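Here is an idea for our session: we take a single protein and study its fold together. To get us started, please write out a protein record for me. Once you have written the record down, we can walk along the chain together.
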Amino acid sequence: MVIEKKIKVLNLYAGIGGNRKLWDNDKVEVTAVENIPEIAKIYKDFFPDDKVIVTDAHQYLLDHFEEFDFIWSSPPCPTHSKAKMPFMVSGQQDFVYPDMKLYEEIIFLKHFFKGKWVVENVVSYYKPLIPPYWYKGHYYWSNFIIPQAKKNYFRGHDASIETLQELKGFDVSSYKFISIDKKKLLRNCVEPKSGLFVFNCAFKERQEVLNGDFSC
């Protein structure tokens, strides 16, 4: 019997694992990196077979990228968000610089990583400095093709915690937090079906040849 080698996955800024939820445990060996211990514990509860590391994902990528076959990175998005811009303009929130670690990782992965990779983030208030793919309301930069979704869908950002739990497939009702907003925790999850779709795009048997940039 031939035992299929598992895909070694690095899941950066993992949160509670929305992107990872529907990946086949028999096909992946996942290392998840999350810098908030309470959130990392929830991830470990949901995915006990994964290796979970509490540290800075940006530095971990630089130190360990060569150890993996597939890398998924979802850097923090608020400083880029189109939804945040009106609050800065109106004075409801302080002005902040966009966090350029997002583009540091895209450029680094493109030039040095030999496996499949994807960087996910929100739609920005500025024209992306590197053109991404667009899939179901988010930006995806990758070295494989991600077809655009045929229709939009309900993301539930303004929904109740109960609705978000059902939508994302994570029940966090038993967890007690002092400083973590459960609604924000669930909103930050990549939709599991999107996570599975993007992962499957990376490992299709046949991929069209990219033309050297990131355009669709």
